[in-house]
Amino acid sequence: MNVQDYQDYGIRMRRHFHQHPELGRKECETRAYSIHQFEQMGFSITDCFYTGFYADLHIDDKFPTIAFRADMDALPATEKPGEVVTSQNPGAAHLCGHDLHMAVALTAAKIMSEHRSALKANIRFLFQPSEEMFRGGAKGMIAEGCMEGVDRVYGLHNDPQIDCGQIALRPGIMSSNGDQFKLSIEGKSAHASAPHLGLDALSEAVRLLNEFRSIITDHVDPNKAALISTCMLKAGEAPNILARNAELQGSIRSFDKSVHQTLTRHFMEEIQESRRRGYNVDLDIMGYPAINNHPAETQHLIETAQEYLGTENVLTDRPPMVGSEDFSFFLEEKPGAFFFLGSGDHSKGINNPLHSNPFIANENCILIGATLFARLAGL
User: Fold this and answer.
1) Is 132 annotated as a binding residue?
2) What would you report as the CA-atom Rg of the chain, rounded to the nearest whole angstrom?
3) Same domain, 153 and 10
4) 83 marked among binding-site residues
5) How high is the mean pLDDT of the chain?
6) Residue 283 sits in a domain of what CATH number?
7) Which of 27, 94, 332, 340 could be stapled to 22 by a disulfide with Cβ–Cβ 3.0 to 4.6 Å?
């Protein structure tokens, strides 16, 4: 295949995934379609964590094994028209570009399989379920052995606010520590005319919301970034009945590990205060640590990208993203690096943020990401 053939293949893969999105741990068709592609290329398949799997191309026992990750899940949304193709599955849409990530990985796999005699590494592609919504597909795959035998691991996320043809990365912190929480508060209902006979869950939810905000002003160095964002509050059944139940949902984010520990500690203290006040409070909290790129692997990636894209197109001075990503768990297991792949085109107005609806991307980025992966494998 020539370069144009790889480009066409990657775009075809992306458009298939974009039209057939599936939510986390339900990526059954996505999984089957991807496995079929890998098997045609000569990769061996190992099932791993619900709908996840990894695909291996073994070259030589004396070579190291390099892993590349692609996340598979879509977001729970109905896509608006605007992209070149549109989701055919109501209630699911690739508004974060995971369809691009899978297309990059499959295109890279095709390049590697057709040039396997020149490879200087054994190859493993990690097709990971449930990255979105803090469901921890990476952690689940690691627990089931996907990193056994791996020497280095690389991952990417597209970014339409970076022009196609550029990438962004840096050694060290690349994303925030992030936790997503759901608080269920139970009090005691009473008539609105006799509030002293009840225990108002709505008022307690509002108290917590305000106290969460004050944690940052009272306990965090103003020179350090920190967020506690309460984004959902549900309570009440009638205008003359005190709310027996209330629910709060939101997220906690920071870049500094010690700051995150401070936020979490005071957050838990406020929940304990609610319990002391007589409320029953249940907490469901899930999170990802910050992505922390390893120095040597990051430098290798920077040099590889500079040789391919030109020094001016490898951005190393961008701040970490405030969002979170569970690729961080892979980097806690093995050395590696994560980068942002430009998928925008400011000249054509393609600079929408992730999770936009519709989510517009420059598909030319697929071959760029795939070629970078191939070069990291020694091609």
Assistant:
1) yes
2) 23
3) yes
4) no
5) 96
6) 3.30.70.360
7) 27
Query: What domain count does the chain have?
Result: 2
Determine whether the annotation assigns residue 355 to a binding site: yes
Over residues 324-334, the pLDDT tens digits come to 999 999 999 99
Give CA separation, 230 vs 63, 166, 248, 264, 304, in Å: 49, 34, 7, 14, 41
- 96 is annotated as contributing to ligand binding: yes
Helix (H) or strand (E) holding 180: strand 177-186
Q: Same structural domain for residues 17 and 122?
A: yes
Angle 207-188-237 (CA atoms, 0-180°, nearest 5)? Answer: 80
Residues paired with 339 in a beta bridge: 156
Instruction: Give CA–CA dist 219/148, Å, rounded.
Output: 41
Domain residues for the domain of 49 are 3-175+290-377
What's the token pair of residue 110?
A: 């095709």
Residues 278 and 214 in one domain: yes
CA–centroid distance for 77 within its chain: 16
The verdict on whether residue 94 carries a ligand-binding annotation is no
What pLDDT digit, counting tens, does each position of 245-283 carry?
Answer: 999 999 999 999 999 999 999 999 999 999 999 999 999
pTM over 0.90: yes
